[in-house]
User: Fold Nucleoside 2-deoxyribosyltransferase from Candidatus Sungbacteria bacterium RIFCSPLOWO2_01_FULL_60_25.
Amino acid sequence: MAKKLVFLGGTAANNAWREGIIEVLVAEGVDREALFNPVVKDWNDEAQRREEAAKAGASHLLFYIADPQQDGNPLSAYSMVEATMALYDKADRTVVVFDTEGMGGHPQKAMSQTAKVLKARFPEARIFVARQDAINWLVTELK
Assistant:
């Protein structure tokens, strides 16, 4: 069986979802080496190359869309674009999580509507609106 690698894409800024999900998956028995976190302190050309290589070689492309927790930036617009492109290009490898925790008003409505529309367009895709459902699915896939 080919080695599994999950690219952890999606919301960045001040939301530390990656650390939390890595901790939970490792506690569930997933190999830490199977989880690629693209966030680095100093983003440069080499970091970009590593990210692109990880995306190309990943068995799973996880896009976790959540509140960036950044003033004036209530949505991760580019992350939603990336997730949508991945669903069109690599639906069989793409996993999307829409986490609206801490959101309200228009941002929450936009996220909920985006999840609904993408689920309708890609009925076989792994699109989750509950973090725990995504974690359960990933644990099953990666162990």
User: Anything to note?
Assistant: The beta strands are 6-10, 35-36, 60-65, 94-98, 126-128. The two ends are 12 Å apart (CA to CA). The chain has a mean pLDDT of 95.
